[in-house]
Write a structure and sequence with these properties.
With 317 residues, this protein is an alpha/beta fold. It has 15 helices and nine strands. The chain has a six-stranded parallel beta sheet, with helices on both faces. Bound molecules: nicotinamide-adenine-dinucleotide.
Length: 317
């Protein structure tokens, strides 16, 4: 088994490094907080004196750091990974970071004959500890295949996203959608409670309605957007526009600010004015495609299979 270097043993890195160590890989660890390395040293890992020292003693070096600033300094700063790493070695960044940065770093590492992957993760601290983690990987396919057993040691959903930076792009898209959806949920629940319904029945409604069954991904994305087919409607835009309008009216009646809901209503009105009222409500995606100058088609994604995946992973974040 190759020797693995791990730099950044925080909430995520600590759990992932623990699973790598339990899988039997010899390890060299480093963190600016030396106390974070202690459990790994007690279990047989060696201590690196700097990122360069770690990289010089390992075939694969991993980093799990707060963000782009730390990644850049640990990768290419003084006594950084690039200083110590040897030609043929592999550097993998697991942080949620800037795609452009890892693309720039890859060029510098490649000049030294080193392979780079970006592999951000999703699943939280508990997922990092229990190996219940999605790992989205960008970089050369051949290198991905080579390190797959190592990635499998700490992630149960490891997949190839594309060229270098693709993992980071996918992760940012994932988190951005999550953040937007959380805001929409916050608006909905505050509206519901202020308009006189208890949180428990509201929660049941969300869980048991089409939202809980993730129809928004199945019907709205896999069946319509990916196919470029917004007709015949499963739920017509005209009806959706009526509903969001009734909800924003209720928000005004009860003085609940709902910026996301009101924005969604404006977009629905614009789509209605295109004459799209009889199409599926997901046709608002088409407006976003227009203003972005890009199309999102994936005709080979089978909607039935997409739905199955969603329902069999209810806890995936
Ligand atoms: P954290 O702050 O708990 O851990 C970061 C670790 O890096 C710390 O132990 C810190 O001491 C160390 N560190 C910082 N600067 C360093 C340096 N220059 N050299 C060596 N070590 C250094 O953060 P986290 O929650 O583990 O997140 C790590 C990454 O994973 C972030 O990019 C985060 O966005 C991402 N992430 C976090 C979660 C989560 O739920 N916490 C989930 C998915 C992804």
């Amino acid at each position: 088994m190759e020797t693995v270097g791990f730099i950044g043993l925080g909430n995520m890195g600590g759990g992932m490094a623990g699973n790598i160590q339990r899988a039997g890989y010899p390890m060299v660890v480093y963190d600016v907080r030396e106390e974070a390395t202690r459990p790994f040293l007690e279990a047989g890992a060696r201590l690196g004196s700097s990122p360069a020292d770690v990289a010089g003693r390992c075939e694969v070096t991993l980093t799990s750091l707060p963000g782009p600033r730390e990644v850049e300094s640990v990768a290419v700063g003084p006594e950084g990974v690039l200083e110590g790493i040897r030609p043929g070695d592999i550097y993998i960044d697991l942080s949620t970071s800037r795609p452009t940065l890892i693309r720039e770093l890859e060029v510098k590492f490649r000049a030294k004959g080193v392979h780079v992957l970006d592999a951000p993760v999703s699943g939280g601290k508990s997922g990092a500890q229990t190996r219940n983690l999605a790992v989205m990987v960008g970089g050369e396919r051949e290198i991905f295949d080579r390190v797959k057993p190592l990635l499998d040691a700490f992630g149960d959903k490891v997949f190839y996203a594309g060229e270098i930076g693709a993992g980071s792009v996918a992760k940012l898209v994932h988190n951005m959608i999550g953040h937007g959806v959380r805001q929409a949920i916050a608006e909905g629940l505050t509206l519901g409670v202020k308009a006189g319904v208890e949180p428990e029945p509201l929660w049941e409604c969300i869980r048991r309605g089409s939202l809980g069954r993730m129809n928004i991904l199945h019907e709205g994305v896999a069946r319509t957007l990916f196919q470029g087919e917004f007709e015949p409607p499963s739920f017509a835009l005209g009806l959706a526009r009526k509903d969001i309008g009734l909800a924003t009216d209720l928000g005004r009646e009860f003085n609940v600010p709902m910026p996301v809901a009101n924005l969604a209503e404006q977009i629905a009105i614009e789509a209605m004015n295109r004459g799209w009222g009889e199409m599926d409500s997901s046709v608002t995606f088409r407006l976003q495609e227009e203003v972005s100058g890009v199309e999102v088609r994936a005709p080979h994604v089978d909607p039935a299979r997409a739905a199955r995946f969603i329902t069999t992973h209810p806890d995936a974040e």
